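May I ask for a protein sequence together with how it folds?
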Amino acid sequence: MLSQVEVKVAEEEEEEGSLPVGVGVGVNGGSPGDPSSPSHLQQDPYPSFSEQLRIAMAQSSKEQEDLERRWREEEEELQRILQLSLTDK
């Protein structure tokens, strides 16, 4: 299972719109495919299984939080509607 820190990092990367591995600009403005760029040695165009799992778990966690938040909002709205209907009578 992922730690809270790993999930938080993945959520922040997703919110920031971070580019997938192997895409974007390398260190010192070089492209990731540029052999003169040190980042070229560190980037893998195909994420490992553990990286894919980490991303999937983070996305699943975020979706679950969103569902719970929407459920709470709907529940609160129904409570307000019920209160209004009781006070109108």
Notes: DSSP finds three helices and no strands in the chain. Residues 21-31 have pLDDT under 50 and may be disordered. Helices lie at 4-16, 39-42, 49-88. Residues 4-88 form one domain.
